[in-house]
Amino acid sequence: TAYEICGGDWSSDVCSSDLNEDGMNTIGIDALENFSEDFDLYLYDNELQVHHNLRDSEYEFYSDAGVFLNRFELVFADPQESSDALSLDENELDNFNIYYNSTSNTLVLNNPSSVKLKGLSIYNIASQLVHHHTLDEFSTRQTIRFNNKPANGTYIVMIETERGVVSQKVLLH
To answer: Which of helix, strand or coil describes residue 108?
Structure first.
C-alpha cells in the first residue's frame, strides 16, 4: 500500500498507517516539493524509539497487520542537535522541587534556577491526564490549587519548560 503525506507550514506531524499484512514494511521518500536540499526529514518510530533520516535511506521495520495511529512522526530537525539544545542542565533538574500540600489542597512548584516555564500536567499511574495548568513563565515559586481534592496516590507531574520536559513522581495524600 502506498501513502502520500502532504503538508503545509508545519514542523512535525504524526502519521497514521494501515498495514494489511504481517512482515517487513518500508517507508521512504518518492518525491519532495518545495523543500531545500539542505533540509533533512526524519521519521521517528514511537514504538521502537528510533529516529531515521529519510534523505539517507528508506526506513525498514517489521510490524503485525493493523492500524497504527500514533506510531510514526515526521521530524524536521536533527534529533541529536535538538536533544542537546533542549536538554536541561543536571543542576537545573535537581533544583526543581514539587510537593503536595494537603492542608491547602495545592501543588507547590519551586523553580530556583528561574527556568522559563510553559505548562504543568499531572498524570495518574494509569497514564491518564488528570490536570493541566498553564504556568507563569518566570516565577520561581508557583502554587496550583485544585478545585477538588485529588484521590490519594502516586502521580507523575510533567513540567514543560523552554528547554525540555521535567518529570517527577509526587505522592498526593
So the answer is: strand
- The residues, any chain, with a CB within 8 Å of residue 81's CB and separated by 6 or more, are none
Among 46, 53, 58, 41, which residue's Cα sits nearest to residue 7? 41
Which run of H or of E encompasses 161?
strand 153-161
Contacts of 30 (CB under 8 A, 6+ apart): none
112-152 pLDDT, tens per residue? 888 888 888 888 877 788 888 998 888 889 999 888 878 88
- Whose cell is 535537581? That residue is 94
Three-state secondary structure along 38-99?
CCCCEEEECCCCEEEECCCCCEEEEECCEEEEEEEEEECCCHHHHHHHHCCCHHHHHHCEEE
